[in-house]
Amino acid sequence: MNLDTLSDLLDEVSVAYAARNGIKRTADWFTLKLQEELGELTQAYLMERGQARSKGRSVEELRDGVRAEVADVLAHLLLLARHHKIDVMEALEEKWLVHHPPRSPRWKRGEVIMWSYRDPDFPDLIDCRPVTVVDDGEEGLVVWLAPGTRMLHHVLEGGADIRTADGAARFTSPRAQAVRNWSGSGVLAVFQPDTMYSVWFFETEPGVRDTYYINIEQPYLRTANGIESSDLILDVVASGTRYKYKDEDELAAAREAGVIDDSLHERIHRAAEQAIAAFQARDYPFNAGYAQFQPDPSWPTPDLPPETTWQYET
After folding, report:
1. Residue 144: Cβ-neighbour burial (10 angstroms; 0-12, 13-18, 19+)
2. Is the full-model pTM beyond 0.90?
3. How much is the pLDDT for 102?
4. What pLDDT digit, counting tens, does each position of 164-186 carry?
5. Between 59-83 and 27-48, two packed helices, what is the crossing angle to 10 degrees?
6. Which of 36, 51, 149, 185 is the most exposed place for a label (fewest CB within 10 A)?
7. Is the preceding omega at residue 285 within 30 degrees of 0, hence cis?
8. C-alpha closest to that of 198 among 211, 182, 216, 210
9. Confidence class of residue 101 from pLDDT cuts 50, 70 and 90?
């Protein structure tokens, strides 16, 4: 049985239930009924786990209760989707299955994608950079950010640079969307699957990219038009045999502001240590020959999508 057939059958049951009980199935009813069923599932789960009164029910009855409430939640979720004409399979493909490795798109050399960062505290804003794909293989995704690329970034409400705010205010003050050009030379960036850092190769002299900016960030996710991650503030700058941490003060301020909790703080430092170990051992991507990378001269500087909007130009 497919989801469409199941939804049709569930709708027939729901229509009969509503008729018997004098219920008008409005958009609000579908949403509130789902909320009610979620509450009942939570109660059944707490009873089964011994965190709420069992009301004299046996272990098997409690387990059956959870099973029944899961069915109610799923049924009402499908009814809600049907009411709003949402193709559930299509939505799952776009939101979830696109991130499943066998289904993830592999981009070809020369294709343009969006390299983006989202801040969960400012979900309506984005840091977005159009880039050209250099390689997309099992070890990693490699992209080229050309000089002068038009990119989106965050500013404080009013248009000021975020770094003009002090301490915790840098992470909690209201923000706005802005656009600017990438300054300086171009950057080759490497993203590895399930890895909490990316490595940016900066040019130190013509034809040589042997300074590495290691950006600590959430493992990237593939989207329909590129990749998305969340920046985690701490960075490492490495060259030759030396390295140094960057923005430790900002990480401390973010922790003070409650943006970074103890668990994430520990994971950030562990990721930085793993990156440093890879740098010292000259593991991928430090051994991949990217220090000598030069972009294809035929590649144009990519642009932001035409529908892109912003409030400030900086």
Report:
1. buried
2. no
3. 61
4. 999 889 999 999 999 999 988 89
5. 160
6. 51
7. yes
8. 216
9. low
| Tokens describing residue 235 | 């960075």
Copy the structure tokens of residue 7: 């939804």
Q: Give the Cα separation of 80 and 74 in Å (integer).
A: 10
For 93, the token pair is 């493909």
- Contact between 265 and 251 under an 8 Å Cβ cutoff? The reply is yes
Task: Name, in order, each residue with C-beta under 8 angstroms of 206's C-beta and a sequence gap of 6 or more.
Answer: none
Residue 263 to residues 3, 77, 217, 224, 258: CA-CA distances in angstroms? 39, 33, 15, 31, 12
Distance CA 207, CA 203 (A): 7
Residue found under tokens 């850092």: 197
**What are the tens digits of pLDDT across the range 107-161?**
999 999 999 999 999 999 999 999 999 999 999 999 999 999 999 999 999 999 9
Question: Can you spell out the DSSP letters for 73-114?
Answer: HHHHHHHHHHHTT--HHHHHHHHTGGGSGGGS--PPTT-EEE
Residues 6+ apart with CB under 8 A from 161: 155, 314
Write the DSSP assignment of 226-262 as a string of letters: EEEE-EEEEEEEEETTEEEEE-HHHHHHHHHTTSS-H
